[in-house]
Design brief:
mainly alpha; transmembrane helix; transmembrane; membrane; single chain; 6 helices
Length: 203
C-alpha cells in the first residue's frame, strides 16, 4: 500500500515535470515577446521561468517565490557570467546555471494536498539542496543551448542564438526543479508514513 503511494507520487511528479518543461518553454517565449514589445531585459525571462513551478502546482506562494528567486538569480548570474567570460574568450558561461540554482530553491516548498507549505525541516532542506544542484546542472543547458544551433534568420523569433538559449533555459531549469521536487515529495511522503506509524503505535 505504501509502495503504491510512492509510485503514485513519482507518476504525478513525472506528469508535472513534462508540464513544467512545456510551460518553461512557453514562459521563455512569452518573455521574449515582452522583451521585443517593451524593450525589457533578459531578467524578464528569468522571472517568467521562476513562475512556472508555482503555476504548474497551483501554488501562489511558490509562484511568487520563484519569480523573486528568478530575479535575484539573474542578478547574481549576470555577474558570474561576466566574470567567467573573461576566462573563456568572452563567452559568458554559468549565467543560467546560477538562475536555475536559485529557482531550484522552490523544490523545498513541498506540500501535501490542502497545505500551503511542508514545515518538515528535512524536506525543506533536502528539497532546496537537490533544487540547487539540479537547477545548476540543468541550467547549464541554457548556457550552452545556443551554441549547438544555427541562427534561422528567416524566422522572426529566432534572429539570434540567444533566443534558443533562453528557451533551453526555460525547459531545462524547470525539468531540474521538477526532478528535485519529486525527490522531495518522496521524502515528504516517507516522513508522513513514519508519522502515521508512530501515531498508531502510541494509540
Amino acid at each position: 500500500m505504501e509502495g503504491k503511494r510512492d509510485r503514485v507520487v513519482v507518476k504525478q511528479g513525472i506528469r508535472l515535470a513534462i508540464m513544467k518543461a512545456i510551460l518553461g518553454a512557453a514562459a521563455a517565449i512569452v518573455a521574449m515577446m515582452l522583451m521585443r514589445l517593451f524593450g525589457w531585459s533578459e531578467i524578464t525571462v528569468a522571472v517568467c521561468i521562476g513562475l512556472v513551478p508555482g503555476i504548474s502546482e497551483k501554488s501562489l506562494r511558490k509562484a511568487l517565490a520563484g519569480a523573486v528567486l528568478g530575479f535575484v538569480g539573474y542578478s547574481v548570474g549576470a555577474r558570474v557570467g561576466a566574470t567567467l567570460a573573461r576566462s573563456f574568450s568572452g563567452v559568458p558561461l554559468g549565467h543560467w546555471a546560477v538562475v536555475g540554482a536559485f529557482i531550484g530553491l522552490t523544490a523545498g516548498m513541498v506540500r501535501q494536498p490542502g497545505q500551503w507549505f511542508s514545515f518538515r525541516f528535512i524536506v525543506w532542506w533536502l528539497g532546496c539542496v537537490w533544487g540547487i544542484v539540479l537547477g545548476l546542472v540543468f541550467g547549464i543547458m541554457g548556457d550552452i543551448g545556443g551554441f549547438f544551433t544555427i541562427p534561422a534568420y528567416e524566422l522572426p523569433l529566432f534572429y539570434y542564438m540567444r533566443e534558443v538559449s533562453l528557451i533551453c533555459a526555460g525547459v531545462f531549469i524547470n525539468l531540474g526543479v521538477a526532478v528535485a521536487s519529486v525527490l522531495a515529495s518522496v521524502i515528504d511522503n516517507a516522513l508522513s508514513r513514519v508519522a502515521r506509524s508512530v501515531e498508531r503505535a502510541e494509540a
